[in-house]
Each structure stands twice: as structure tokens, then as C-alpha cells.
């Protein structure tokens, strides 16, 4: 991501101004590095400039104006999102060529707009980017006019897979597409209530074309499995749904209320034969199903890879949310004072050990995951570029590996963000509960990320399946373990790794990585053995897998990801040269992330014998005045976590300054860059709708006579 | 709570009807006990009947009608809450005598109304119950007319402590009340922006009288610290604020938007001398401050106890939310099918090990915490009854112990509910993200509970201070450790307990309790020693305490609570006789809760030597085909957790049926008792506002010409 020559701060001064003076000055002055250099290390010159372009475009356009205290009903949120979407398309902030030549501008755009509004970017990505990729992955029979329409806002796309009764298990979807040779068309039907298409984003109000997944039936009555179809559903001028469709908006959601998720039922809805969107299968005009089965499995690997883009972007969504939440909570904590050593003297709550421990590990995670995203995105670009000229098994392998990494990565990153947002909310005390703080919207919008593009728990199984397969092939067929991007390569040394023991203090990243690799190997082998045991016991691999999830396969996928993220961070640290004052801090962050993540698995490290806790005679107490503190390898880890938090606390504000979006994007009364928390909160109080007015209903309700005199006795 | 003769189910049939037949029949038929008997075990006949009365009153009154898909703006939520509050007061569902004679009806009422709407019950409790208690704790100089007004909805109360810059640290509040002998009044002032009163519930729109905390100044300019004052703020007929006050509504919050939190500034606002609300201090008419200092510390203990009621009720709020969330998620999981052993055959997601492990421990916690609440509430009643005729140190001790228990209990219970709600949301997949599922509101409303009535992290310090004090006095002065309700008594045997070691499988509650007590003792002693060490190092007890929070004092308060909750559950099991089929299940729940909670502390059990993990030679792998599974004492714990989840899964639906509120209260399209998830979700889709309409703005925005043609190049 970073070219070291990019670190020329001076040339960037136009787009990253200094912070306004104020209550944060003191905290900022304590930083050991220049946050602008860190910003460049994180994003690189191109991305910093491009985000700046996006953000200043939004800042200068009244339709993108917001205040932290504004409140809209769902209709207004939908309207604003739609109007903003149109504007975004009109702006064409980068050309297609620009995105092709500088692919990092794609996530930069997604993040810059997403941090402004998740409804907006999700609507944009679903109706535009995903849809265009879907069109392009199609067999190419169709002309380009639909893509052009989409690009000019004359059409809007949506993807409709999920049904009322089926989401994760797409195989069992029940919508039917039956080929009718007389009319040369597919007839779509919703056979029962449970088959109603649901959740499709953009479908509720505005999509004109939908990629619909349905079971393909030929006239002979046989079913050929799930296929996708390009289905026009609304008149692009009037937005009137076509006859044969019932389309509705799903209504209120936990969050993302600017996005119009919809539901749809088909009643003998005819679409042209050419609507079938599958490169490898077709139906002859008289109704025979044909398919190029031969490279089916290769294509499957590639499809898996392409479909990973959704999850990869959700990793980015999660990092963006962690960044926003931390920007608010860390700045607030550096200004908010409560209690102190003497009466009258109060200290910033960031000085409390517990506040540091609650926030700073998430800063560490945000840096490590940011790097993970950047690195996985490069892998994805690598894969994507070669995917369409597939001429070997490599692309298939690449696709499967990216699928594995994006599955566990999406699960762990979305959970990390979920917990970070919550911790940040609580770290801001009562004021964190104000709508104007921003956490409510962050949390509610983020919440969907744990579920869509694959439920997290189901996704973890994708990764563990991938890993188990390698190990099985090694043990049962002697195949060496390796993969294109190398994420599994160390597993080939599994027995050597399993013979290692904790080397003492885990005081640098490589040592933590060793512990992590031991953990992964240990969980891989024991999961495999447990699976075997359960298969013998239960006689069924479905049941055996189910009985090996918790503490085995599920943990395996999680530690595999945590190790991989740390490994990629370590590689970044060794491969890129950054100024010393930056690299010192990055190393602290990497180590803190590693130890803090490892902390969740301490018991396994003891169980596995990697850690040792010596048996003590009952009379021999571990507690004596001379040796007061907890002991054992895990104790050292905890002590180091606290030390690192303490070492990093004076850099905490600079670390969030380095990635905080501008104030008008962050849109929080607690997190503004000027640190004027009380003025800003007060502005939110004063300016909210009806702050000082007396509601018209108040007097009337209060003074209405009780109507219950006769009622009470009857209850 | 329970009298065994109460378990006569037949006599209750009128208020607990059977469940409607439907998709849940199968799951229900697998239960090993009668859920109606369990309901009686949980609540007892009186409470079941009383809740039924409350709920049927709400059901029959149109103002309390709701649908899962309704959406209101803040103004409408405020209006509805206010109108419902008035109705609730009018209904007088129980008389004051009834509540006095059967105090369990108080939490029953709070829970029954709270599960309907938290804004409503919080508004009710703040403006009514708390306020009346405040009045009654006053010195009694005032006549009773205000209490009568409140009881007849002719006045509404509020409590105003928090200021913009001070919440947790009340000592430093800055609002001033200066006695003016010429006018014989106190003059209230807000000296600076930061001293603006904020967050006070009911203040925003509707309170007429507020208990205001301010620094009392006498005419000689000296400050006598924080005192409370009864301050009339609005005309009770017109709701017009009086001159000298600026009062506003705080606007949108993360949740609880039916509740009008307010802010207020004073400008030379005069209140009569008699407004001072302190039993023990006064100001003479010429402005001398007088105070009965002698029993100040005793009163402080009592005040602590009385103020615990807020936290005790928040424990109840939390349990209620866990119950609601689990009722939805468990029923949904028993009906929702996804994947299966063979194509076409799908199993309920509750059959997945991971789904069981994600949900069932929370069921266990809900039972254990329910019992904890009931038992602590009894202690509180015991204390409250004697508190006002205080004639010894006993009441002070009782108050301090209740303060300690309610502090850690509130923290752990609110976090437990926070996590349970989130897990339940995720367990319902995409449909869980619908507003109509109910989780959004549950989570957003619940969120405040971790903060108000004391920030959780600050509260944990209250409990650890309490425990450390006992230990210090024991070690330094030889005082035995004991308390009125006995929660700390076992700490007196600390050295004996610390000499114990894990006795093998922790396969019953008493053994888990032993491990827990070891943990508490271990953390108590090491916290004390660490505190000493840090005090020597830092030379300041404030800093030393700060540096001993994480992994020490904070963990101490948490494990102390977890152990106490388990202990009270075990006492319930031994002291009350319930039918065998019930007690078997309760024991499983208790054990599961104990092991699952203990799991978070496994590393400490290794560090402390309670668990042993033998050192292995590097060449000696713990993994061989014959011994595939993780080993060590902690492994057994995990295996037992999974076994217990598996044993309990067929009872899961009956366990939530036993406490689920009626459908019109639960108000969830996923959690209705008929189990018709798809019909109910579809009803929510069809009936939401604007489901099928085309928004008027759509066509207009879509077809508006781009206004950006000339703009792009300028960016
Ligand atoms: C905001 C939002 C936008 C969406 N947009 C779209 C869209 O544009 N197009 C579209 O087609 N869909 C969309 N969806 C639907 C989404 O893709 C699905 O909801 C998601 O894939 C999860 O599937 P599910 O709802 O069936 O969950 P389920 O599979 O029903 O999950 C329910 C529970 O069962 C558990 N579970 C399921 N299977 C297993 C197993 N094998 N082992 C263990 N546990 C299991 C899960 O972990 C979960 O706890 C959207 C959803 C949301 C919330
Ligand atoms: C919905 C709602 C209703 C409310 N109703 C009322 C009401 O009716 N009347 C009223 O007077 N107030 C009310 N409040 C205010 C509420 O009581 C306070 O917000 C609450 O006590 C927390 O205090 P704070 O906001 O000052 O948090 P802070 O103390 O500012 O906490 C901020 C952060 O600092 C940390 N922290 C603070 N001190 C320490 C320490 N010593 N050690 C370690 N960490 C520390 C906290 O853990 C937290 O992470 C309400 C608040 C809400 C959200």
C-alpha cells in the first residue's frame, strides 16, 4: 500500500490542515510521532488525496449537509439517500480507468462515503458496483446498454437471493424459473409464502433490474438447480412495478434505514430466454438443458473468489467503524475529566488504567486490521485481474484461499467492530448515549455486517473446512500443505511446530506469532482428530462436523485469522521502511494486538502444554508478601498488555487523529477535532428539534380527567 | 420468593392459557417438565397473578396497543409515553398498602410495564416512585401535599444531579445554592456552561418539581458541600417553566426516546429556605450552617443502601431484557430450519451445537440472575423496613452490603443482558435485523443501563473497595470478616481456601462454588498485595488504586458477584422443595451458569496453581490418535458446558415459555408464542407504513437532470 517516498508531508498540507487549537492541544503535544506522517503510512499519498477529494465534494454540496442532532423518519432517510445516490453517480468522482489503474481508490471511495452514511454506500455498491460486476460476469450475449443505463442512473440494480425461509442455505431456495418453449421465455413463480424473495437491498422502492436466483426447471419437469436471471422489474421512468410482480418495501430495520430492502413475489412472470445469466449453462429453444460441466469445479473456485468482494468490503466497513468509534471515544476521553488525586483536581479519564485497557487494544486492532484489509485487497486485485483469463488451476486456488481469508476475516472484523463501538459508547458515559454522540447510528448500521454476505458463524465453517481439507490431504495422502498466497504454508510444519513450547516472555511480535502458530496447529490437529472420533461415533459427517464446532473448528478459524492478520502486519513492518518514531509505535501496536488477542486463548495454551503451570503443594501458597502478583506465563502477557497500553496512551489521540475522518463526516458532538466537547454537546442540546418548545399535547393529556373511575373495581 | 404450596397449577389456568398449536408443538412436546409449574417456581402465585392483571389491563386499553412494525418519531413516542403514564397512574393497579404488604408486587409491576416499554416505566419510576421516596426521606418539615399531587398526576417529579461536566464525580458539581438571609431563600445559579444540569429524566418536557443537587453556600461565602433541594420548576397546569430557569429537552438519544431527558440552567432562581432537603443539616434564618455531624457516617451507610434501589431495579431491567431477547431467539431457533444432513431435509437451527452454545448459557444466566434479584430484593426490603428506625450500626452495615452487592450486580447483569441481546439478534440471522423482530429497541433501550445509576466500571470499584476494606482490617487489625447478609463471610477463611486445589471434575454446583471462592480469595489477596506494592511505588493511594484495577480489583468485583449469584442459587435449590423434574433442570442450569462464567477466568485458575498443567517434554506431543481431544482441567469444563447445553436443548423452549411475557408485550414478529414465524414476519412486511406505495419523491429525483456538468473539472 505504501511507497516510502510517499511520506512527504509538506506536499500534502493543502488537504490535511492542522487541527484547531483547543482542549486537545495538551494530549496532542505528547505524541511521539507526527500524525500526518502516520496518515501517509496508513493510506499513502494517492488515497489521502482521493479521500480528500470525495470529502470536500460532500462538504461543499448542501444535499450532503448533516448535523449530529438531526433526526429523520424513515421516509426522509430514504429520500435523502436516494437523492445523495443520484448526486454521487452524477459526480463520477473517478473514471473507470482511474479505478482500474489505481484500484486502491475503490476502497478509498467506499470508506470515504461509508463513513458519511452506510445506507448510501451500501445502496450505491449494490445498485451499481456489484450489479455491474454481475452483468460483466454474465455470458456476454447481452448488449452493454444496461451497464450504461446503470452508470447514468437510468437504471438501478439489486441482487435477490434470500427468501423468507432460506438465506444461508441457498441451495434450498424455492423460487422457480420454468422454461416455456412456446413463448421462448422463463416463467418465474413464488410457489409458497416461504419462497417470497426478501431482504434484497434497493428492491424495496427503487431497483429497476434484479439478479434473481431461482431453481431452473425445463419443460420435462426436471430441476437443474439454482441459476441467476436478469429480471427487469420496474419501469425505469415511473418506477411502477410490472404486472405479475408484487413488490414491497420491508419497512423499518435496526439500522440502515436509508436503504430500501424489499420483498417480492412472482406470479407467472415471463422473462426472455436470454435472461439466464450463466456462462456455462443454457437451455435450447425447445427446452433442453445444456451445460459445460467440465470446468465446473474450477469455475466454482473462481466464483467463490469473486463473491468474496462483498466480504472483503465488509472488513473495510468494520475497520471504518472502529476508526470512527475510536476517534470519538479517544478524543472525548482525553478531554473529559472525572475524579482526581485531590479534591478539585481532576484527570482526563484516559489516564485511568481501565479506560486505557478498554480503548487502546482496539486502536491496536484497528491498525492491524487496516493493514490486513490493504493486503487482502491487493491479493484480491491480483486474483481478479487473472480470473477472467483463467487457464489453469491457479485461479481456482487463489479464489478458494481468498474465500477462506475473507470468510474468517469478515467474521472476526465485524465482531471486533461490534465490540469496539459498544466499548466506545460506554467509555463516553452518559453523553455517549446522546444521539448526537453518533454511537447509536454506528452500532445500528454496523450490526447488519455480522449477518449479511454470510452469517459469521456459518462463514467460520468455510474457513475451517478449507483448513481441515489441507490437513486431511496431508495426513491421508501425504500431500504437502501450501497455497498461492501462502496463508497455510506453515501448517506443513505442523508436527515441528507442535513440538515447540513457550520460549519465555512473548515480548515481540515474532514470539507471539510462534505461539499463535502453535495454537493454530494444535486446534487444527485436535479438530481433525475430534472430527474423526465423532464420525465414528455418529456415523454421519454432518453430525460429526456439528459436534466439533465449538472449541474446535470455530476456534480454529478464529485463531487462524488472528495469526494471519498479525503475520501480515509483521511482514509490513519488515518490508516497508518507515521513520523510526513511526515504526516504534507500530511495533507496540502489533505486539499489543497480538497479546490481547492471544489472551482469549490462554486456557488452550495451558491445556495444550504450550504453557506450563507447575503443581503446587496445597500448603504452598503462591501468595506471599514478597511475591504478591499473579504468576505464570499468562500473567506476563497481562502485565505486558497493561504496559503497552500505558506506553501508548500518550499517543492515543495522535493515533486516532491519523485516521479520523473530517468532522463533517464523523458528525459527532463528542468527537470533533477541536475537542470542545461541552460547547459541542451544548450546541446539540440547544439545536435539537423542539428543544425549548412545549409540545401541544402536554397540557391536554395532563389535564384530561381520568376515565377510569368505574373501571378499577372490575379488574 | 416461592412457597412450595404455591405450585398449584390448576388454580392458575385462568391467567396462563395453553399455547396456541403450531410449529412450536414439537419443540414443546420434548420438554421434561411442565412450564406452568416452572412459571410458578420462578414467580410464585401472587406475582404471576399480579403481572397477569397488569398485562390484561394494558391489553384491553387501546392507548397501550402496539404492533411490531410501528415506527414513531420522537415527538410521537414522547406523546404516547406521557399519555400512557397518565393512564398508568389513573389505573392505580395496586394500592400503597398492597405494595407494602406484598412488596414483590413492586418489581412485578416494574417488570410487567418495563417489558412493554422501558421509557414508560423509567418515566414512571423517576417521576413517581423515586420522587416520593426522596420526599419521604426528607426531614418531614414539608406537608404531604406534594406527594398527593404526584400520586394524582397533578405534579411530576425529577432528580437532577448530573451536570454537563460532572456525572460520576458528584462531589465536584458546580451548581450553587446561596442562602440569602434578606429574602430567606436559596438562590440557585449555574456559574458556567459546564455546570448546566443535564440528563435529568422527565425534566425535558414534563417535570414540575425537581430534586436539585447543588453546593450550599452561606452568606459568608463558605461552601458546605453538596445538598439537595426541592425545586418547583414548571406551572403544573400549563407546564410553563418559571422565570429564572432555562429548561430544554435533550433531544434524540440512542434509545428511551419516550423519556424526556432535560437540561436546565439557573439564573438567580430563588427557592424558599424550606426547600433544603437534608435531614441532618440546616441553615438558620440569618445564614448559619448547622449540621448533626455525629451520625453522619451512619446515615451515609443508610443513604447508600436506599440509593441502591435504582441499581437493584436495573438488575431487574436486565433480567427482563434477557428474558425477552431469549424468548424471541429461542422460539425462532426452534422453528427456523437451515441446512441438514441430506438435501431437502433441514433441521431447526437450535439443533446446531454452536447455536445451543450461543443461547443456552444465557438461559442459565437468566435463571440464576432472576433468583439473585429476588433474593437481593428481599434483603433490600429487610433493610428498608428497618432503615428508618435506625438505632444501631446494623442498618449501616446492611446498607453498605446492599450497596456492594447492587453495584457489582448491576454491572455484571447489565453487561450480561447487553451481550445476550446481541447474541440473540445474531442468532436470528437476517430476520433478526428487522425492526419488527424487536432487538433494535431492546438493545437501544437497554444500553443506558450500563451507564446510568452509576457507570459500570466505576461501580465495580465500589464493590472492590468494600471487599478490600474487610481484608485490610483482617490482616492489619485481626478483625474477623463477616457481614449482615453473609456475602463476605467465607472470606474469613481465606488462607484455608487458598490452600485448596482443584478437586477434579467440577461436576456439581458446590464444586464450582469452591473453585469460585478460591478465585475470589486469590484475587482479593493479590489485589491487596498489588495495591500495597503500587502504593509504595507511586506514593499515592489514588494512583495505586488506578494501577490495580485491571486484572485485579475489577476482576475481583466481577468474580465476587458471579460466586454470590451462584451461591444464592444453590441456597434456593437446597432450601426450597420443588418437584424433581424441575429441580433436575434447575441444577443443570446452575451448573451451566457456573461453569460458563468460570470459563472466563480459566487462566487465573492456572496462574494461581488451582489448576495444574503438567510440563511436557518438547518431543512429547499431547496429540496422538488415541488421545485426540484437548486435555487439562479446563478441557473438562468446556466439555461439560457442551454436554449441559445438549442436555438442556430440548427444554430450551419450555424454559423461555416459563417467563416469556405475552405476545402483545413481547411485540416481536419472530418471537410470538404461536411459532408462526413466516406468517408473522410477512404480516410485518405487508403492514409497515408505505410497504406498497411509491414515494412521491422517487420519480422526481431520478429524472432530474444532472446539475454537475460544468463542475467536475473544478474539483
Ligand atoms: C441489511 C441486510 C441486507 C441484505 N441484503 C441482501 C440482498 O441484497 N440480497 C439478498 O439476497 N439477501 C440480502 N440479505 C440477506 C442476508 O444475505 C442473509 O440474511 C444472511 O445471508 C444470513 O442468512 P439467514 O438470514 O438465512 O440466517 P440463518 O441461516 O437463518 O441464521 C440463523 C441462525 O442459524 C445459525 N446457523 C445457520 N446455519 C447453521 C449451521 N450450518 N451451523 C451452525 N449454525 C447455523 C446462524 O449462525 C444463525 O445464528 C440482507 C440481509 C440484511 C440484514
Ligand atoms: C438515559 C439516561 C438517563 C439519566 N437520568 C438521569 C437523571 O434522571 N438524573 C441525573 O442526575 N442524571 C441522570 N443521568 C446521568 C447518569 O447518571 C450519568 O451519565 C452516569 O452516572 C455516568 O456518569 P458520567 O456520564 O459522568 O460518566 P463519566 O464518569 O464521565 O464516565 C466516562 C468514562 O470514564 C470512566 N471513568 C470515570 N471515572 C473513572 C474512574 N475513577 N476510574 C476509571 N474509570 C473512570 C467511566 O468508566 C467511563 O468509561 C442519566 C443518564 C442517561 C444516559
From TrEMBL, chains A, B:
> What residue stretches are annotated with the Acyl-CoA oxidase C-alpha1 domain?
306-468
Q: Which InterPro entries match?
A: ACOX_C_alpha1, Acyl-CoA_Oxase/DH_mid-dom, Acyl-CoA_Oxase/DH_mid-dom_sf, Acyl-CoA_oxidase, Acyl-CoA_oxidase_C, AcylCo_DH-like_C, AcylCoA_DH/oxidase_NM_dom_sf
User: Which GO biological-process labels does this protein carry?
Assistant: fatty acid beta-oxidation using acyl-CoA oxidase; lipid homeostasis
The cofactor named in the record is: FAD
Q: Acyl-CoA oxidase C-terminal domain: from which residue to which, for each copy? A: 509-701
GO MF annotation list: FAD binding; fatty acid binding; pristanoyl-CoA oxidase activity
Recite the UniProt keywords alphabetically: FAD, Fatty acid metabolism, Flavoprotein, Lipid metabolism, Oxidoreductase, Peroxisome
Q: Which residues form the Acyl-CoA oxidase/dehydrogenase middle domain?
A: 158-268
Q: Does the keyword Hydrolase apply?
A: no
* Annotated active site: 453 (proton acceptor)
- Domain of life of the native organism: Eukaryota
Task: Name the predominant localization.
Answer: other
Quote the subcellular location field of this record: Peroxisome
Task: Please name the pathway.
Answer: Lipid metabolism
Query: Where, by residue number, does FAD bind?
Result: 162, 201
Q: Give the record's GO CC terms.
A: peroxisome
Q: Which family does it belong to?
A: Belongs to the acyl-CoA oxidase family.
Protein name according to UniProt: Acyl-coenzyme A oxidase
Amino acid at each position: 500500500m505504501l511507497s516510502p517516498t510517499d511520506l512527504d508531508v509538506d506536499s500534502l498540507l493543502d488537504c490535511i490542515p492542522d487541527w484547531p487549537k483547543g482542549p486537545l492541544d495538551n494530549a496532542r503535544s505528547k505524541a511521539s510521532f507526527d500524525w500526518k506522517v502516520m496518515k501517509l503510512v496508513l493510506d499513502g499519498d494517492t488515497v489521502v488525496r482521493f479521500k480528500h477529494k470525495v470529502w470536500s465534494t460532500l462538504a461543499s454540496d448542501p444535499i450532503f449537509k448533516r448535523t449530529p442532532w438531526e433526526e429523520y423518519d424513515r421516509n426522509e432517510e430514504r429520500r435523502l439517500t436516494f437523492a445523495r445516490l443520484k448526486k454521487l453517480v452524477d459526480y463520477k468522482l473517478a473514471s473507470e480507468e482511474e479505478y482500474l489503474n489505481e484500484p486502491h481508490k475503490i476502497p478509498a471511495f467506499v470508506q470515504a462515503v461509508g463513513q458519511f452514511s452506510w445506507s448510501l454506500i451500501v445502496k450505491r455498491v449494490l445498485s451499481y458496483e456489484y450489479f455491474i460486476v454481475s452483468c460483466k460476469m454474465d455470458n456476454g450475449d447481452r448488449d452493454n446498454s444496461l451497464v450504461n443505463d446503470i452508470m447514468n442512473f437510468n437504471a438501478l440494480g439489486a441482487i435477490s437471493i434470500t427468501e423468507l425461509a432460506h438465506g444461508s442455505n441457498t441451495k434450498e431456495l424455492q423460487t422457480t424459473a420454468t422454461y416455456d418453449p412456446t413463448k421462448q421465455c422463463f416463467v418465474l413463480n413464488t410457489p409458497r409464502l416461504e419462497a417470497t424473495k426478501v431482504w434484497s437491498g434497493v428492491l424495496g422502492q427503487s431497483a429497476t433490474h434484479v439478479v434473481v436466483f431461482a431453481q431452473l426447471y425445463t419443460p420435462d419437469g426436471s430441476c437443474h438447480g439454482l441459476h441467476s436471471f436478469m429480471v427487469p422489474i420496474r419501469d425505469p421512468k415511473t418506477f411502477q412495478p410490472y404486472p405479475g410482480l408484487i413488490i414491497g418495501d420491508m419497512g423499518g430495520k435496526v439500522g440502515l434505514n436509508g436503504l430500501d430492502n424489499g420483498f417480492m413475489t412472482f406470479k407467472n412472470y415471463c422473462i426472455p430466454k436470454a435472461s439466464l445469466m450463466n456462462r456455462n449453462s443454457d437451455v435450447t429453444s425447445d427446452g433442453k438443458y445444456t451445460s459445460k460441466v467440465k470446468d465446473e469445479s474450477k469455475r466454482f473456485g473462481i466464483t467463490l473468489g469473486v463473491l468474496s468482494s462483498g466480504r472483503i468490503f465488509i472488513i473495510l466497513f468494520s475497520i471504518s467503524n472502529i476508526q470512527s468509534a475510536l476517534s470519538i471515544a479517544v478524543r472525548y476521553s482525553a478531554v473529559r475529566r472525572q475524579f482526581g488525586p485531590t479534591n478539585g483536581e481532576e484527570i482526563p479519564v484516559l489516564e485511568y488504567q481501565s479506560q486505557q485497557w478498554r480503548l487502546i487494544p482496539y486502536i491496536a486492532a484497528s491498525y492491524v486490521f487496516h493493514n490486513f484489509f490493504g493486503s487482502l485487497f491487493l491479493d484480491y486485485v491480483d486474483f481478479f485481474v487473472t480470473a477472467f483469463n483463467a487457464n489453469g488451476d491457479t485461479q481456482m486456488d487463489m479464489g478458494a484461499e481468498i474465500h477462506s481469508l475473507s470468510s474468517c476475516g469478515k467474521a472476526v472484523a465485524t465482531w471486533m467492530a461490534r465490540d469496539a463501538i459498544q466499548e466506545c459508547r460506554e467509555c463516553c458515559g452518559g453523553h455517549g448515549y446522546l444521539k448526537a454522540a453518533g454511537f447509536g447510528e454506528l452500532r445500528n448500521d454496523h450490526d447488519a455486517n455480522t449477518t449479511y454476505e454470510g452469517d459469521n458463524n456459518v462463514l467460520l465453517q468455510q474457513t475451517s473446512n478449507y483448513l481441515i481439507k489441507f490437513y486431511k490431504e496431508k495426513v491421508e495422502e501425504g500431500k504437502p500443505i501450501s497455497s498461492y498466497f501462502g496463508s497455510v504454508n506453515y501448517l506443513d510444519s505442523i508436527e515441528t511446530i507442535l513440538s515447540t513450547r513457550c520460549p519465555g516472555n512473548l515480548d515481540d511480535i515474532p514470539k507471539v506469532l510462534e505461539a499463535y502458530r502453535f495454537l493454530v496447529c494444535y486446534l487444527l490437529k485436535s479438530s481433525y482428530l475430534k472430527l474423526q472420533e465423532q464420525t465414528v461415533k455418529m456415523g454421519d459427517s454432518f453430525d460429526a462436523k456439528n459436534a466439533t464446532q465449538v472449541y474446535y473448528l470455530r476456534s480454529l478459524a478464529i485463531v487462524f485469522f488472528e495469526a494471519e492478520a498479525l503475520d501480515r502486519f509483521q511482514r509490513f513492518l519488515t518490508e516497508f521502511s518507515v521513520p523510526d518514531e513511526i515504526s516504534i509505535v507500530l511495533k507496540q501496536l502489533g505486539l499489543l494486538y497480538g497479546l490481547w488477542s492471544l489472551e482469549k486463548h490462554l486456557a488452550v495454551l495451558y491445556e495444550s502444554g504450550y504453557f506450563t503451570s507447575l503443581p503446587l503443594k496445597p500448603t504452598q501458597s503462591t501468595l506471599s508478601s514478597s511475591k504478591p502478583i499473579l504468576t505464570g506465563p499468562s500473567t506476563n502477557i497481562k502485565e505486558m498488555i497493561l504496559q503497552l497500553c500505558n506506553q501508548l496512551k500518550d499517543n492515543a489521540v495522535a493515533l486516532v487523529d491519523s485516521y479520523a475522518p473530517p468532522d463533517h463526516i464523523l458528525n459527532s458532538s463528542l468527537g470533533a477535532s477541536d475537542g470542545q466537547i461541552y460547547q459541542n454537546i451544548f450546541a446539540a442540546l440547544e439545536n435539537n428539534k423542539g428543544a425549548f418548545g412545549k409540545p401541544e399535547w402536554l397540557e391536554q393529556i395532563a389535564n384530561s380527567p381520568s376515565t377510569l373511575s368505574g373501571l378499577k373495581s372490575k379488574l
